[in-house]
Amino acid sequence: MLMKLCLDCGRHVQTSEARNGRCPDCRRTYEREKSRRRRKTAAREYDGAWRKLVAEAINRQPFCTYCGTRGSKANPLTGDHKVPVSKGGTARTVADVGWPAVVAIPVEGGG
Fold first, then answer.
1. How far is CA 58 from the centre of its chain?
2. ∠103-62-43 over CA atoms, to 5°?
3. Confidence band, pLDDT 50/70/90 cuts, at residue 59
4. What is d(CA 22, CA 33) in angstroms, rounded to the nearest whole number?
């Protein structure tokens, strides 16, 4: 039986139970804290205006920007930032050519 040490408390845990390197008790605490720290979607600018911007981008371009896959009910498209927010982009940025600052990508992988 393979054992690992928990990243947080240092207890020995069976490898099969040590997801994310944590014992079940520490994992619950870690996930709870991670969820508490994360801001709500509206605070991250994913509000009604963002959803409308994404819908407009998908209507203009009903295929993945990266791989060309067409959207469908089985594989719907979603929006993403052309310039990630972490790199200075915003949900309200408009590209030079007049397109919204979103790209259409399949929900399950694709590009």
1. 18
2. 40
3. confident
4. 14
3-state secondary structure at position 29: helix
Gap between the Cα atoms of 28 and 23, Å rounded: 9
Are the beta carbons of 58 and 104 closer than 8 angstroms? yes
What is the model's pLDDT at position 28?
Answer: 92
Mean pLDDT over all residues of the chain?
75
Tell me how crowded residue 106 is: count the other CB atoms within 10 A of its CB: 20
State the residue for tokens 């979103």.
Answer: 102
Q: Which residues share a beta bridge with 105? A: 78
In the chain, where are the structural domains located?
3-37, 48-106
> Strand runs (DSSP E) across the chain, as ranges?
3-5, 12-14, 77-81, 102-106
Contact 106, 71 (CB under 8 A): yes
57 contacts 101 by C-beta, under 8 angstroms? no
